[in-house]
């Protein structure tokens, strides 16, 4: 049987050769009229079975296999993608190390300067009365700053994946994703803020054996109000960043999570300081204000729950997404306990300004890596599928950092950003005379060692955790980032406190502590 010019491929089925016709060729060149049925008649005038292949394209006309990054300048490979897939999915991330670093660099620096600003704010407010007399507020700091990992970074990762696989291409889909996810993070923020205040009260009460009901209500009101307002503002910023990234042809995975953190730490810490200071002022004359603030935000919970339940994508997270955010909050609170015990010690001068920086940078980098790995896995199917790409055993460090795949390449790029990034941030802090401390060579060496070790551990854990969760039928976008950023807070605070302690033992800090 002769084939027509447009029939470029044939399909063998039941011994018969069948023409394969793309669906977009069923219309005439002007797309105004269907092709005549006679075009599909055999030589004897009999009908011929036709196999129609649907062209899978998003709203921009880009196939889903290439939807993640369609910039031709980032790859010398052909744009043709084979439709015959083997067990190993074709890599959708056509990025070089240079392109990854170029896209990550600006958001990384922006996020880093946000953490520097947060550190400077904490260095100032630590001397306020509310931080002096209600020291449990320090325990709230890592837990609430960690909300960007629990909620905003998870939201950014979730929306980045949805955008990359074409689930936000139409206005209806976009609006549905926005309303459902915004309602979801308000529910999570209110609950996590309330639980964080309970953890702060418990961690503050256990060492001292002292409990004040007024201080407990103050912590609850400050935590819930801060979490709610910060999540509302940052959630709106995240949605704008992801939509803008897609329109500019930038991979949202590379920019969304760092930008979530760039303003996240600063906004959250400023809100916590201002709200707790205001409520502390009202504690004596208007004691009823704190309980009213708690009751107001908790009373809004049913509204956000109803909205979130209407969206199928957020309904699942609403029911099953509590374990990671609650456990992550508890982990961050342990880091807050370390901060609470060291920030007032003269031997640890500078801890307040450097803690948000080292924690923020580590959390930002590992969130980018986790989001990228998750998107890579989503391009090959759904969680639990394609077990070949999701090994459950711990990967070797060599496969995490030195293999040829794109995720290993991005891990190397992110790790190499640590030293130059922290040098810039340390110089900025020093030029602004923050931390009541002078930067010496031995301090920089110890600080960089702690920062490199923190990021090295986090990137390795991310490689294992994302694949392990995928193999366990858990969506890494919802489960991995809260754990990773919380571990970043704990590891960063612990290593920084250890570095300060060693420096004090060898006498380096004695001459550097200011007034």
UniProtKB/TrEMBL annotation:
Membrane topology: Multi-pass membrane protein
TM region(s), chain numbering: 104-124, 182-204, 216-243, 255-275, 287-307, 319-339, 411-429, 441-461, 481-506
Source species, domain of life: Eukaryota
Signal sequence coordinates: none
Limits of the SLC41A/MgtE integral membrane domain: 141-275, 355-498
Disordered: region residues: 1-46, 60-94
Gene Ontology annotations of biological process type: metal ion transport
Subcellular locations according to the entry: Membrane
GO molecular function: inorganic cation transmembrane transporter activity; monoatomic cation transmembrane transporter activity
Pfam families: MgtE
InterPro entries: SLC41_membr_dom, SLC41_membr_dom_sf, SLC41A1-3
Compositional bias segments (type: Basic and acidic residues): 1-11
Keywords: Ion transport, Magnesium, Membrane, Transmembrane, Transmembrane helix, Transport
A Gene Ontology cellular-component term: plasma membrane
Function: Acts as a magnesium transporter.
UniProt family annotation: Belongs to the SLC41A transporter family.
Protein known as: Solute carrier family 41 member
Organism: Pluvianellus socialis (Magellanic plover)
């Amino acid at each position: 049987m002769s084939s027509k010019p447009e029939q470029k491929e044939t399909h063998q089925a039941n011994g018969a050769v069948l023409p394969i016709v793309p669906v977009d060729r069923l219309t005439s060149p002007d797309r105004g009229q269907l092709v005549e049925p006679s075009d599909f008649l055999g030589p004897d005038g009999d009908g011929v079975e036709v196999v129609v292949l649907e062209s899978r394209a998003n709203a921009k006309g880009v196939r889903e296999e290439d939807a993640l990054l369609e910039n031709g300048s980032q790859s010398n490979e052909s744009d043709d993608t084979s439709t015959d897939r083997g067990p190993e999915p074709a890599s959708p991330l056509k990025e070089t190390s240079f392109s990854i670093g170029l896209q990550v660099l600006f958001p990384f620096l922006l996020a880093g300067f946000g953490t520097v600003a947060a550190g400077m704010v904490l260095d100032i407010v630590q001397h306020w009365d509310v931080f002096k007399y209600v020291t449990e507020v320090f325990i709230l700091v890592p837990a609430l700053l960690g909300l960007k990992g629990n909620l905003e970074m998870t939201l950014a990762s979730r929306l980045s994946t949805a955008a990359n696989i074409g689930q936000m291409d139409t206005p209806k889909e976009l609006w549905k994703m926005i309303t459902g996810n915004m309602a979801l993070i308000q529910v999570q923020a209110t609950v996590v803020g309330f639980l964080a205040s309970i953890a702060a009260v418990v961690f503050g009460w256990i060492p001292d054996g002292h409990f004040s009901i007024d201080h407990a209500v103050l912590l609850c009101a400050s935590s819930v109000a801060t979490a709610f307002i910060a999540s509302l503002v940052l959630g709106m910023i995240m949605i704008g960043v992801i939509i803008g990234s897609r329109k500019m042809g930038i991979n949202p995975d590379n920019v969304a999570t760092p930008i979530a953190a760039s303003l996240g730490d600063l906004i959250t810490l400023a809100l916590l300081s201002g709200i707790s200071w205001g409520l502390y002022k009202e504690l004596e004359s208007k004691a009823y204000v704190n309980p009213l603030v708690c009751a107001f935000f908790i009373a809004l919970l049913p509204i956000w729950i109803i909205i979130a339940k209407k969206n199928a994508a957020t309904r699942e997270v609403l029911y099953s997404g509590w374990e990671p955010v609650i456990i992550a909050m508890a982990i961050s609170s342990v880091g807050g306990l370390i901060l609470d015990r060291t920030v007032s010690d003269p031997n640890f001068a500078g801890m307040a300004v450097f803690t948000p920086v080292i924690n923020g940078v580590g959390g930002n980098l590992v969130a980018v890596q986790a989001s990228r790995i998750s998107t890579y896995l989503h391009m090959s199917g759904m969680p639990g599928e394609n077990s070949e790409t999701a090994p459950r055993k711990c990967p070797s460090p060599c496969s995490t950092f030195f293999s040829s795949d794109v995720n290993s390449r991005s891990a190397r790029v992110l790790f190499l950003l640590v030293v130059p990034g922290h040098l810039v941030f340390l110089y900025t802090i020093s030029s602004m005379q923050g931390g009541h401390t002078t930067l010496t060579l031995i301090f920089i060496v110890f600080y960089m060692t702690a920062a490199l070790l923190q990021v090295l551990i986090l990137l390795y854990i991310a490689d294992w955790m994302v694949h392990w969760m995928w193999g366990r039928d858990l969506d890494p976008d919802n489960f991995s980032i809260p754990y990773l950023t919380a571990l970043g807070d704990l590891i960063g605070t612990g290593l920084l406190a250890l570095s300060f302690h060693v420096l004090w033992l060898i006498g380096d800090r004695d001459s550097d502590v200011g007034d």
